[in-house]
Amino acid sequence: MKKSRFKWSNLYLILVFCFLYIPIFYLMFYAFNAGSTMNKFTGFSLAHFGELFADTRLIIILLNTFILAFLSALIATLIGTFGALFIYYVKQNRSKTLLLSLNNILMVSPDVIIGASFLILFTTLGTAVGSLNLGFITVLLSHIAFSIPIVVLMVLPKMQEMNDSMVDAARDLGASNFQVLKDIVLPVLSPGIIAGYFMAFTYSLDDFAVTFFVTGNGFTTLAVEIYSRARRGVSLEINALSTLVFLMALILVIGYYYISQDTGKNNSKGGGVK
């Protein structure tokens, strides 16, 4: 009985992964098509990759998208980490529950509502200040805002796993708050911080709804650009671009795996106050 259940569970996993990955591989397969459509594979060719690298506008948009994702994830990780620390050390349970609820609102709210609210906010500020135009800054601020709750949710469980007696012992030995943070707290939180950064990076990279509302002034991201081009008919140049982005994402996942493995080994050795 156990063997049959094991076989059925394996079959289920295979079907799920096939359902998820076959469309991606189908898209990547036709990136190497010599023809101009996905109706028929006429031969192997790298022509569409050549068209992609010759498209200066699309390459600039790709670079802007990755720069935006790196910056927003970095800033959101810094704010979210200290936000998780603040929530953890709040003593009143009612206040802590309120803060967690406010943090989770952005996680469950529809992206359209968030994007529209940011648009109203930036438009109002632009009218009042007179110098805030929709563009890179507004998109960056929006991505930071919706990435912070993700980082908090990644870091807070690691904070709850931490042994508070280590912090108390370090302070009894005369460690300053900075030493406690650097030598005790951050090493324990590092897996959650790394996971939060990669999650924030991913959310920023593929966000469309929020970005669509707050972008402007000639700035756009990859998701918005692909959407606008797809309305005119999907070119195999987009297939080539999607293939490269998928490979970049695969490299990031592999990098995250090895970084988390090294972090876990270092944490298992224990930390101390220097």
Automatic annotation (TrEMBL):
<dbReference type="InterPro" id="IPR035906">
    <property type="entry name" value="MetI-like_sf"/>
</dbReference>
<keyword id="KW-0472">Membrane</keyword>
<feature type="domain" description="ABC transmembrane type-1">
    <location>
        <begin position="62"/>
        <end position="256"/>
    </location>
</feature>
<keyword id="KW-0812">Transmembrane</keyword>
<protein>
    <submittedName>
        <fullName>Spermidine/putrescine transport system permease protein</fullName>
    </submittedName>
</protein>
<dbReference type="InterPro" id="IPR051789">
    <property type="entry name" value="Bact_Polyamine_Transport"/>
</dbReference>
<feature type="transmembrane region" description="Helical">
    <location>
        <begin position="184"/>
        <end position="203"/>
    </location>
</feature>
<keyword id="KW-1133">Transmembrane helix</keyword>
<feature type="transmembrane region" description="Helical">
    <location>
        <begin position="12"/>
        <end position="32"/>
    </location>
</feature>
<feature type="transmembrane region" description="Helical">
    <location>
        <begin position="102"/>
        <end position="122"/>
    </location>
</feature>
<comment type="similarity">
    <text>Belongs to the binding-protein-dependent transport system permease family. CysTW subfamily.</text>
</comment>
<feature type="transmembrane region" description="Helical">
    <location>
        <begin position="209"/>
        <end position="228"/>
    </location>
</feature>
<feature type="transmembrane region" description="Helical">
    <location>
        <begin position="58"/>
        <end position="90"/>
    </location>
</feature>
<keyword id="KW-1003">Cell membrane</keyword>
<feature type="transmembrane region" description="Helical">
    <location>
        <begin position="240"/>
        <end position="259"/>
    </location>
</feature>
<keyword id="KW-0813">Transport</keyword>
<dbReference type="InterPro" id="IPR000515">
    <property type="entry name" value="MetI-like"/>
</dbReference>
<dbReference type="Pfam" id="PF00528">
    <property type="entry name" value="BPD_transp_1"/>
</dbReference>
<feature type="transmembrane region" description="Helical">
    <location>
        <begin position="134"/>
        <end position="156"/>
    </location>
</feature>
